[in-house]
């Protein structure tokens, strides 16, 4: 029997309106009534993840920034896995040389060097996740959402690297030409044994410390709770979910998931707009999947 469920958010728990459906909420509540813990494992930082969860009335532990941070349900930080600052400097040089827009998630918040580029790149990302949106609609929705997400704009992020106790937890990069530009850079950076490079969409890459992966974080949480990996269930849709999909005794790929994720998951559920998370949870409990 499963005892711990870890679900991705974007493209998984969240629907096309970036909300948690009534069916998903009901299934999570039912799981909790059965003594099963639910948590999210997301590339988002905690501040970005909280609004949708609070709107749904879900209070849970979180794996954030692909595993670079883990919080308990009360919001207490359990551990962080930062990237060495000299390595960060080298990464930023590489991204700048390729003219790739990036943002840096740190222990002091999220940093960007351009508001205009932030809106432009996030609207492209949103249009990818929601193909029915026109370009104008994607920009409008992006602007509205980003207005509520705290971000610090600075002229040069590299000047922050000399600050005492400053930690860089994740670097997320965007480019409208997707793999054509991002692919070679991702390959170069992932060759560094200190780094793990993954993606949550066609037009982005996400750079973390090699030990900051969702699967590693899920395993850590399970061990803390004395739960075996065979009793863990994970649900995801994209490549930054692969490590936790491969790890869990019960794993579900969303109907809208990448092919490679579907190939690695034990089970398949419906898409995020069809409440695939809720259906997966109910199936796992009712069929006692293993």
UniProtKB/TrEMBL annotation:
<dbReference type="GO" id="GO:0005829">
    <property type="term" value="C:cytosol"/>
</dbReference>
<dbReference type="GO" id="GO:0000287">
    <property type="term" value="F:magnesium ion binding"/>
</dbReference>
<dbReference type="GO" id="GO:0016791">
    <property type="term" value="F:phosphatase activity"/>
</dbReference>
<protein>
    <submittedName>
        <fullName>HAD superfamily hydrolase</fullName>
    </submittedName>
</protein>
<dbReference type="InterPro" id="IPR006379">
    <property type="entry name" value="HAD-SF_hydro_IIB"/>
</dbReference>
<dbReference type="Pfam" id="PF08282">
    <property type="entry name" value="Hydrolase_3"/>
</dbReference>
<dbReference type="InterPro" id="IPR036412">
    <property type="entry name" value="HAD-like_sf"/>
</dbReference>
<dbReference type="InterPro" id="IPR000150">
    <property type="entry name" value="Cof"/>
</dbReference>
<dbReference type="InterPro" id="IPR023214">
    <property type="entry name" value="HAD_sf"/>
</dbReference>
<keyword id="KW-0378">Hydrolase</keyword>
